[in-house]
């Protein structure tokens, strides 16, 4: 069966080919009555607009790239942050009748591939996620003059609109809660220092510790469960008397809880543990994890809305979402 053509729709509706083209491309210059007749003919014939031709007419692809600067192993790991952001951004784009194109950029070769794809005009805009400090992509994409937003404040000096949560304030909230609970030797397992989340949460920890009579005790992880366990063992070796730890994400906190259990330390009796993120697993650790909730779903949705706004000349102002303390049983 031959695919229905624009000309066939025009003949069925009794209008010109140009009128049909304006209707199927969503142009507002067609009278409602004529639009209804054309759409009825489209449905009767089963006409499907040619996507490539439509792109040439509208200069739009209705596709948005979500660029994640991580390897497939990291993105498809047990870290729920990635799946939550991807799922939430996809749902928000689908509601706007847009398609998400997931692109992983964890290597120099993949960086070049992503740059070629975006420069080729295959997407209308770009969302950047999990950027690292030395990542060349933000600056490279910004030079292409394609609308682009970042999930999280860029770690490099580049002028990009972004959506973030109050990482510094959330970390300060967490450490103050540990102090208020009577803890004296409060350590932190910081996140990677080439990522803005890792930097800001360490800043929040240091801000509060400087204002108290306690010294900072710091180990650094990479936001994975394994690195949390390694860092916790290091902290126990460096300071066996520590009685609390603020961990820069919940997944590392899960690893820290495991290391404490293996070392015979009771939580929270011997060592209080505070996380950051409020992933679903935080409710099911032993004991349930006290943490700081960052609104991951809302932040991903806000990122999409910021980008869609740029398509129509909207605001480039950053969006900062609040964090909140979630008290459970580990403190």
UniProtKB/TrEMBL annotation:
Gene3D superfamilies: 3.40.50.2300, lambda repressor-like DNA-binding domains. The keyword Repeat does not apply. Residues 4-58 form the HTH lacI-type domain. CDD domains: HTH_LacI, PBP1_LacI_sugar_binding-like. Keywords: DNA-binding, Transcription, Transcription regulation. GO terms for molecular function: DNA-binding transcription factor activity; transcription cis-regulatory region binding. PANTHER family: HTH-TYPE TRANSCRIPTIONAL REGULATOR GALS, LACI-RELATED TRANSCRIPTIONAL REPRESSOR. This is LacI family transcriptional regulator. It comes from Planobispora longispora. The lineage of its organism: Bacteria, Bacillati, Actinomycetota, Actinomycetes, Streptosporangiales.
